[in-house]
């Protein structure tokens, strides 16, 4: 335990998300030591680690890590630096963080196909997140930008078409349309620390060209989920 601080000792303020709280103190690193001691006046709060780093000889940066699901709010604490106890206040900010498994989705699909699949979703942040029942994202030919740049450089000005116009035209032609996503299971609020199964219906666009590969990004709160689609001919 950190011993009680003396009267009129300045307060040390930490601020940030649970795994990235830090502060600056005007105490040389050699006096603080590499591993300060800290205790929090909240029985259900778990501390992971605290370290000190030198920042210019006359000051130190303290970096504190707490359980990633620690709720937002202000927490009273005490920290011992160089054998002296200081009152501390930890301000935990909201941290939105969803994770999906697998880390990316790679599928084969034909034009207009509907597929059903399952993903595992975890809320590793410290605030609830709302999962919608419908989503949509665009698909783009993975070689579209390369073809567009090549076509633009090959474009001759005497044709009347500008290079940038040709580039935009090629990029637009590589857009296969929009994937529509319907959640059969898993929509609604997900609490910090919870894990659930998402059951999705994916309706692929009718403009998929067999033999081409497309990519897109499903946006969900902080998450940008990468999807790669290999277009195949319909059986």
Account of the 3D structure:
This protein is mainly β and about 240 residues long. The chain folds into two domains: about 10-90, Immunoglobulin-like, CATH 2.60.40.10; about 100-230, Immunoglobulins (Immunoglobulin-like), CATH 2.60.40.10. About 10% of the residues lie in helices and about 50% in strands. It has an eight-stranded mixed sheet with strand order 8-10-15-13-12-16-17-9. Helix 2 runs antiparallel to helix 3 (about 165-175). The longest helix is centred in the middle third of the chain and has 11 residues, at about 145-155. The radius of gyration is 26 Å and the shape is elongated. The model has no long low-confidence stretch (mean pLDDT about 85).
Instruction: Estimate nothing, just give the exact number of structural domains.
Output: 2
C-alpha termini separation? 69 Å
**Percent range for helical residues?**
10-25%
Structural class per helix/strand content? mainly beta
Give the rounded overall mean pLDDT.
86
Shape: elongated
- Biggest β-sheet: count, sense, barrel? 8 strands, mixed
CATH class of the largest domain: Mainly Beta
CATH superfamily of the largest domain: Immunoglobulins
What would the CATH topology of the largest domain be? Immunoglobulin-like
Secondary structure tally, helices? 3
Percent strand equals over 45%
Count the strands? 17
Order of helices and strands: EEHEEEEEEEEEEHHEEEEE
Radius of gyration: 26 Å
CATH architecture of the largest domain, by name, is Sandwich
């Amino acid at each position: 335990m950190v011993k009680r601080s003396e009267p009129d000792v300045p307060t040390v303020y930490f601020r940030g998300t649970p795994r990235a709280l830090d502060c600056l103190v005007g105490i040389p690193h050699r006096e603080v030591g590499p591993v300060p001691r800290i205790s929090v006046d909240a029985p259900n709060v778990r501390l992971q680690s605290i370290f000190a780093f030198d920042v210019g000889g006359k000051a130190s940066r303290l970096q504190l890590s707490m359980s990633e699901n620690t709720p937002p709010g202000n927490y009273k604490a005490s920290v011992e630096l160089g054998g002296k106890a200081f009152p501390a206040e930890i301000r935990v900010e909201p941290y939105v963080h969803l994770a999906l498994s697998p880390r990316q989705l790679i599928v084969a699909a034909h034009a207009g196909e509907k597929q059903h699949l399952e993903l595992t979703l975890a809320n590793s942040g410290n605030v609830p997140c709302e999962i919608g029942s419908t989503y949509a994202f665009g698909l783009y030919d993975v070689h579209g930008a390369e073809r567009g740049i090549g076509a633009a450089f090959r474009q001759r000005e005497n044709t009347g078409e500008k290079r940038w116009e040709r580039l935009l035209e090629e990029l637009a032609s590589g857009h296969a349309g929009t994937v529509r996503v319907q959640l059969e299971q898993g929509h609604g609020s997900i609490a910090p620390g919870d894990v659930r199964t998402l059951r999705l219906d994916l309706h692929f666009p009718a403009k998929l060209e067999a033999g081409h590969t497309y990519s897109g990004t499903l946006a969900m709160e902080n998450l940008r989920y990468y999807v790669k689609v290999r277009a195949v001919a319909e059986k």
